[in-house]
Amino acid sequence: MSSTVKYWVFLVLFLTLGFIYSVCNQSTIDKNQLLHCQVVHLNDGFGYQIMRGKKIVILQEYIPGFPGKQNFVSEEQALKTANLVISKLENGESPILLPSDLEKLHISSKVSH
């Protein structure tokens, strides 16, 4: 076998192995890299934390975008909001919530404004 043929065989074999490795490596999801949330019980209501594995990435004790320091009035509101933030992060978007985002989730506070 000539050296040119050996070179091409080696190159094709190397590229094939590299492709197989990258495909297999992508399908293995490290659970420590997944984002998840937990509701946080506070004195006057609820908040949430977003975690990657055991590390807290975001701790949100107050309703974002509301004036003052207002807690969520229910676990459900905190959880819905946390899930929206996770969805934004997973889609490569900014985790900042707009008033329209909170309206769509029907987020309210104890204090009328």
UniProtKB/TrEMBL annotation:
It comes from Maribacter ulvicola. It holds the Pfam family DUF4907. This is DUF4907 domain-containing protein. InterPro entries: DUF4907. It comes from the Bacteria.
